[in-house]
Amino acid sequence: xxxxxxxxxxxxxxxxxxxxxxxxxxxxxxxxxxxxxxxxxxxxxxxxxxxxxxxxxxxxxxxxxxxxxxxxxxxxxxxxxxxxxxxxxxxxxxxxxxxxxxxxxxxxxxxxxxxxxxxxxxxxxxxxxxxxxxxxxxxxxxxxxxxxxxxxxxxxxxxxxxxxxxxxxxxxxxxxxxxxxxxxxxxxxxxxxxxxxxxxxxxxxxxxxxxxxxxxxxxxxxxxxxxxxxxxxxxxxxxxxxxxxxxxxxxxxxxxxxxxxxxxxxxxxxxxxxxxxxxxxxxxxxxxxxxxxxxxxxxxxxxxxxxxxxxxxxxxxxxxxxxxxxxxxxxxxxxxxxxxxxxxxxxxxxxxxxxxxxxxxxxxxxxxxxxxxxxxxxxxxxxxxxxxxxxxxxxxxxxxxxxxxxxxxxxxxxxxxxxxxxxxxxxxxxxxxxxxxxxxxxxxxxxxxxxxxxxxxxxxxxxxxxxxxxxxxxxxxxx
Length: 479
Hints:
Blueprint: E1 2-3, H1 14-31, E2 33-35, H2 38-46, E3 50-52, E4 55-57, H3 60-67, E5 74-76, E6 85-87, E7 91-94, E8 102-105, E9 108-111, H4 114-126, H5 148-159, E10 164-165, H6 171-185, H7 188-193, E11 197-203, E12 208-209, H8 211-222, E13 226-235, H9 243-264, E14 270-273, E15 275-279, E16 286-287, H10 291-306, E17 311-312, H11 325-341, E18 345-346, E19 352-353, E20 358-360, H12 361-377, H13 390-396, H14 406-411, H15 427-432, H16 438-452, H17 460-476
Parallel strand pairs: 2-12, 7-18, 8-20, 10-11, 11-13, 13-14, 13-15, 14-17
Antiparallel strand pairs: 1-7, 2-4, 3-4, 5-6, 8-9, 15-16, 19-20
Helix pairs in contact: 1-9, 3-9, 4-5, 5-6, 5-17, 6-8, 6-17, 9-10, 10-11, 11-12, 12-16
């Protein structure tokens, strides 16, 4: 994983933070937040909060008391200990695209399949820049609806040895994820001691937590598994058209969701989540990679640090329909502020296309290139006497060149970033190589990586037990 020790880019003044703080306090106490699960309402009622129907009217200080119980930093274990991660502080972890029902491969856009899911998982295993393949990398529409979560978790556990995300469609799916994680890690006690999953709990913004997400949250937090409490905010649709108003709503939703996790299990690991962008006010379509989303992202990091919470935001987001120039510059517009603010957990880091409707193989490679470059850009310079290369000046003298200098020959393999995808060939050489643009080169790269993929080793008895669990549960679920 990457440790970002560069200074954070903070744009909110103390007065601005104070104003935002007053705003979320007013929302939770005067408007309230809906929780569509009776047991959540019972917990809040027992804790002394006022409940009106499904809405909870919070004492803001009570919310902060609960939020303070969440750990500032924690570990998440992978089945290969070398791939375990640390959440919080200067640590940044990157996960693949999450949730698309469609896949784009070259010029073809189609329904996603389980084979696509497997191939994206294999690609994530192949690139060290990614700490996780993700969760629902794409929706395998050829697998039975009620049991496809079993196929996805099994693939994440066996085709990678990195951390993975749990299924959150229902409490049943969450329990299956936890049961399979217990098999992989040798029981309940090891995963309660150190969480082994991260799961996305989305708010149905504005100001409503739905029952299915809450059912999953109850399961994961009770088992001490990490949850990313994330308001889903598109300005103009799920929040007002003002960035400050949206930030206040995000704070109200995220903090009350985190509050619930701490009531379920004090000290349960949580991540302050943000998914913030805007809609096109002419068409109503979601927009990604916009200046407004970048500003909201930068503010979110500062807000999360203000509350002492690890946070999730950013990714390689784009509205583009193809892996083209727009997809690359919009992804960079989101990923650069992700690094500037030091996000601790970054979803959608590779493969996101068409507003999240599509997982794209070529875009996956473009995003990995962006990640690779930013990791170098955000690695502080080491400046010492040797780096000043005085001997090289002595050797070359006035008016010479440094290409053959000893200093160059000793360092030429590692002195500069070597691209994965970019081409710097001259025109003639580029033409002789087939005149491939970045998208065509990305196709060659992902296909080569898949051909070279090696499945990480796993104990045969564990694999068999997981396979038997999947078969048994599929039958029980009616598939």
